[in-house]
Specification:
This protein is mostly beta strands and 163 residues long. It has three helices and twelve strands. 12% of the residues lie in helices and 45% in strands. The two termini are 21 Å apart. The protein binds flavin mononucleotide (FMN). Flavin mononucleotide binds next to strand 3 and strand 5.
Length: 163
């Protein structure tokens, strides 16, 4: 599968505080995960799919949080892909600190500034498939933060640019 060239996206979601009524409860945190297993599924209704490793932080979060977002990364955003692919990190708070982003109206999830496209989604279906979960989401909003610019691609284990 490393011979299948793909685009690279950042999946994001907002982790809610455990108990929003408890001022002592830890505040919600933005979580991100680099993914290439992302595809368009249906036009009517608009559905997309992301495949998440079972037990990954994003898989655990989307099991509880139906609202999430996807930012399609541009060739100048390789550093974002790199940092959100690191294993074993405890918190994503610092990882978002120097990244320009907007908060999605429909999902509250971070939408990366300068991404080629951003989508906000609500989970319609979760399908357990081997060691991954296929999360199918309905697209709630779509926008194009950066009209120009080439895509960040991934091929044979390396980030690439077209051309
Ligand atoms: C280029 C690239 C693509 C990736 N694509 C996926 C993916 O589609 N699905 C997935 O579950 N993990 C994917 N990963 C791995 C996750 O980004 C990584 O496991 C995660 O951010 C680390 O968090 P975790 O410790 O909770 O797994 C990819 C990593 C890289 C570098």
């Amino acid at each position: 599968m490393s011979r299948l060239a793909s685009g690279v996206v950042l999946v994001t979601a907002r982790e809610e505080p455990l108990d929003p009524d408890d001022p002592q409860a830890p505040s919600g945190e933005d979580v991100g995960m680099t993914a290439t297993a992302f595809m368009s599924v249906s036009l009517d209704p608009p559905l997309v799919l992301v495949s998440l490793r079972e037990g990954s932080r994003m898989d655990d979060l989307l099991d509880e949080q139906p609202l999430w977002a996807v930012s399609v990364l541009s060739e100048s955003q390789r550093h974002i892909a790199g940092r959100f692919a690191m294993k074993g990190r405890v918190s994503d708070r610092l990882l978002f600190a120097d990244i320009p982003y907007l908060r999605g109206e429909a999902t509250d999830a971070p939408l990366v500034g300068g991404a080629l496209a951003t989508l906000e989604c609500r989970t319609e279906q979760r399908v357990s498939a081997g060691d991954h979960t296929l999360v199918i989401g309905r697209v709630l909003t779509a926008s194009l933060p950066s009209a120009d610019g080439g895509p960040l691609a991934y091929f044979r284990g390396r980030y690439r640019q077209l051309g």
